[in-house]
Specification:
Shape: globular
Number of domains: 1
CATH topology: Immunoglobulin-like
Structural class: mainly beta
Order of helices and strands: EEEEEHEEE
Distance between the termini: 9 Å
Oligomer: single chain
Radius of gyration: 14 Å
CATH class: Mainly Beta
Strand content: over 45%
């Protein structure tokens, strides 16, 4: 339960190991950094859930994924400027007794997300 994320690199068909991610709480136009982390070999936060059920609060959040940095580190030739640089996902948590999983499927040219389980 709580809040988690997982990133899959659809260009290479692998987890996005090494991608930098930042988690923020948001209130209106104000974003407050909660933590920065680098995804592990499975494309997940190495410390487990971003919030457990006891810590997760009703509110709005933002995950920022360093897509361009990740693909450059994988030696993918990207145009300048990059089509995708950082992908920001803003989402709300309405029920802290439920699990909020925020996956990202990403390539240098596209991404998709959904509320996972």
């Amino acid at each position: 339960m709580g809040l988690s994320t997982h990133v899959l690199d659809t260009m290479h068909g692998t987890p996005a190991a090494g991608m930098a991610v930042a988690l923020y709480t948001t209130q209106g136009d104000t974003a407050t950094l909660v933590k920065r982390f680098v995804l592990n070999a499975d494309g997940r936060n190495p410390d487990g859930p971003l919030y457990d059920n006891a810590s997760l609060r009703v509110g709005t959040y933002r995950l920022v994924f360093d897509v361009a940095g990740y693909f450059k580190a994988r030696n993918v030739t990207l145009p300048e400027p990059n089509f995708l640089n950082q992908v920001s996902l803003d989402f709300g948590v309405a029920h802290v007794d439920q699990h909020y999983h925020v996956p990202l499927l990403v390539s240098p040219w596209s991404y998709s997300t959904y509320r996972g389980s």
